[in-house]
């Protein structure tokens, strides 16, 4: 078997990828082209950034599978039965259960709430004081995900979940947890004051809270609720048996870890580009203005230029550089190379989005390209594809547009340092701006167009 070309195996390769993945991918792409091999130990990892090859990875379900085994490294984070660890029938079934509450009318029903959450969080900022956009967007996306997953937006239970998940998600991004995930010998429960002990403590608290919520909702079913938890309470598993509390619990960590940070990363990048390029901001404001006072969320979400700006933000710096890994199960030819069973392959979202033939001047932020051309799902793939395509895509795009529209219409922001060129930096699997994006809130208007200085205290 002849593998696609690639650099000589060395321990430094992985470090290069981890420390500056975009630069690493740019270098590999320039040197080897659309398909190359990186040796990770004795296992070849084939990276593909050609739409034809990506299509094969996503659609050759018999030869290439979304094997859960390949994601085992994430098990201490999302559990052994998280969506990422599953494959085959069970994986397909769990994803089907998630589709109704994360799509269509059910997501659209959160529109007003998303705008309100964005306002609530933005109103906590002080006028003329710098703030970091990334953690601010994380606050917004945490509240939105609490609503979508558990239907909670106020009250004591909501506060308990919000506080706990905020701790859990920020500890999950910490260096301590990163080290423990890389070095299993560090995973020792030495009590709450040790990193691993603290992580287990947070998880136990999460389980306790979630199981209490599940029990209470089972006892008092409310068919009018549209959230993910309500959908799962009376669902059956792939064998037709009612889902146990543990089955239900296991679904949530992947959704929380998959969803909150990716959305915050995407919105932060969009804020960066919009405020870096005045012409983009102007055109967006004009488009939003055309909807009149208090537009409804569905009209906002249908705006073509706003959609193009979101797509371009997701293209130029996708939140994930590569898709989750896929496993070659039986021999398959991909772009002239015969891949044998055991080979691992990943679509490179970043390099595909940087192709000159698809995106002329790929390093430039040009939303118009999405108005002028339709891209196939193998050319534009910020949410991956195939068996593991992001189940939160509809919610994420709707949220992104509504949060941006709310911020643009009501809050006049500027970049704290207009000359600073932001670069992505890994935080878990996502790549937000390395600095966290410092911005300043100049003005808040009570209505679109009419500005008034609202001085609120910073938190
Ligand atoms: C702008 C926001 C988001 C982006 C760019 C994004 C991107 C992605 C990507 C690239 C993948 C990997 C797909 C593959 O390997 O083919 C993925 C998977 C996933 N995403 Fe998202 N995501 C976002 C928001 C969300 C949200 C809001 C949720 C939850 C409600 C979510 C939950 C997940 C889960 C659970 C998976 C794993 C799916 C599986 O294993 O079957 N994501 N996402």
Describe what this molecule looks like in 3D.
It is a single chain. The chain is of the alpha+beta class and 459 residues long. The chain has one domain (11-151, 225-452): Cytochrome p450. 49% of the residues lie in helices and 10% in strands. It is built from 19 helices and eleven strands. It is globular, with a radius of gyration of 22 Å. The structure holds protoporphyrin IX containing FE.
The number of distinct β-strands equals 11
Distance from N terminus to C terminus (CA atoms, Å) equals 60 Å
**What is the element string, with H for helices and E for strands?**
HHEEHEHHHHEHHHHHHHHHEEEEHHHEEE
Percent helix: 40-55%
The CATH topology: Cytochrome p450
The CATH first-level class comes to Mainly Alpha
Q: Structural class of the secondary structure composition?
A: alpha+beta
Share of β-strand residues? 5-15%
> Major sheet, described briefly?
5 strands, mixed
CATH architecture: Orthogonal Bundle
Keywords, please?
single chain; 5-stranded mixed β-sheet; Cytochrome p450; binds protoporphyrin IX containing FE; 4-stranded antiparallel β-sheet; 10% strand; 459 residues; disordered C terminus; alpha+beta; 49% helix
């Amino acid at each position: 078997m002849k593998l696609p070309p690639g650099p000589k195996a060395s321990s430094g390769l992985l470090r290069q990828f981890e420390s500056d993945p975009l630069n690493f991918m740019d270098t590999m792409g320039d040197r080897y082209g659309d398909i190359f091999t990186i040796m990770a130990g004795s296992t070849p990892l084939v990276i593909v950034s050609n739409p034809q090859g990506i299509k094969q990875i996503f659609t050759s379900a018999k030869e290439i599978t979304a094997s859960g085994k390949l994601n085992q490294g994430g098990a201490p984070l999302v559990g052994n039965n998280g969506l990422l660890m599953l494959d085959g029938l069970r994986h397909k079934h769990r994803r089907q259960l998630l589709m109704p509450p994360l799509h269509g009318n059910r997501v659209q029903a959160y529109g007003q709430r998303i705008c309100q959450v964005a306002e609530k969080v933005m109103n906590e900022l002080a006028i003329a004081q710098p703030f970091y956009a990334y953690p601010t967007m994380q606050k917004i996306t945490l509240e939105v995900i609490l609503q979508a997953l558990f239907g909670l937006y106020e009250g004591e239970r909501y506060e308990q979940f919000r506080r706990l998940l905020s701790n859990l998600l920020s500890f999950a991004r910490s260096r301590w947890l990163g080290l423990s995930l890389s070095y299993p010998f560090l995973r020792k429960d030495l009590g709450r004051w040790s990193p691993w002990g603290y992580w287990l403590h947070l998880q136990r608290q999460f389980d306790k809270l979630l199981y209490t919520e599940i029990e209470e909702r089972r006892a008092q079913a409310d068919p009018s609720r549209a959230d993910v938890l309500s959908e799962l309470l009376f669902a059956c598993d792939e064998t037709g048996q009612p889902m146990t509390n543990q089955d239900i619990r296991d679904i949530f960590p992947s959704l929380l870890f998959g969803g909150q940070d990716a959305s915050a990363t995407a919105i932060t990048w969009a804020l960066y580009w919009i405020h870096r390029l005045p012409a983009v901001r102007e055109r967006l404001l004009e488009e939003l203005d055309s909807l009149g006072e208090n537009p409804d969320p569905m009209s906002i979400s249908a705006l073509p230029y706003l959609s193009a700006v979101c797509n371009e933000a997701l293209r130029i710096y996708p939140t994930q550089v590569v898709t989750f890994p896929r496993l070659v199960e039986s021999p398959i030819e991909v772009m002239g190379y015969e891949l044998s069973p055991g080979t691992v392959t990943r679509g490179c979202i970043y390099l595909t989005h940087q192709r000159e033939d698809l995106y002329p001047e790929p390093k430039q932020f040009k939303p118009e390209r999405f108005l002028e051309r339709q891209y196939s799902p193998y050319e534009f793939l910020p949410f991956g594809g195939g068996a593991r395509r992001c189940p939160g895509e509809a919610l994420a795009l709707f949220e992104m547009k509504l949060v941006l529209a709310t911020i643009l219409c009501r809050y006049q922001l500027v970049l704290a340092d207009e000359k600073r060129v932001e670069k992505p930096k890994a935080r878990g699997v996502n790549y937000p701006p390395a600095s966290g994006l410092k911005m300043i809130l100049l003005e808040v208007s009570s209505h679109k167009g009419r500005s008034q200085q609202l001085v609120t205290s910073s938190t």
